[in-house]
Structures are given as C-alpha cells and as structure tokens.
Amino acid sequence: IEAYSQLHQLGFAHSVEAWLDGKLVGGLYGVSLGGLFAGESMFSRAKDASKVALAHLTNRLRTGGFTLHDVQMMTPHLRRFGAILIPREEYKARLAEALRMNATF
Fold first, then answer.
1. H/E stretch holding 18
2. What is the pLDDT of residues 3-46, one digit of tens each?
3. Residue 10: strand, helix, or coil
C-alpha cells in the first residue's frame, strides 16, 4: 500500500483513499464543520489499507487545526489509534468549541 492516500474535498465532504498497484484498496469519508471532522465510514479491501487512510487523515486533521474527530462508534481498530469515549456533556462542550473554529482540510 502506498505510503500516502489521496485526499478529495467536495465542500464539506472529504474522502481519504489508499491505493495499491493502481487499485483502490481502502479509505474513509466524512464531513467537516469548523474544527470538527465527523467520520462516516471506512472500508478495506487489502490488509491495513484503512489504517493507512486513518493515519493519513489524522495527520491531515492535526495539520489543519481540527480539534474534534468524531468516529461515531468505538471499535478495537479505532481504540488502537487513540480514540477515546467521552461523556455526553464533555462532547457537547468540545463540539461547541470545534464549531467556532476555522480549520482547514
């Protein structure tokens, strides 16, 4: 799997794709608002392809100034990458702060 993913931005929707030998083998997509990135779905057709896309996305979000990455559902896969569960009230406070920001994908 190539050490980079292709990034695509269409307004608020974004995709990160992992390619191997000219074939799409994994990726993810989501939407951004302010400093929030809300992940919607991931897929993998080759071992570790979604991990490559997630690592690339995480770097992109940090570089762009995002402060909240909502993964919607905790999985062992996401936990390995540092995802944490937070209480509802803390999430709402972080969300309000993230929506006031001006991050760049």
1. strand 13-20
2. 444 555 667 888 899 999 989 999 999 999 999 999 999 999 99
3. strand
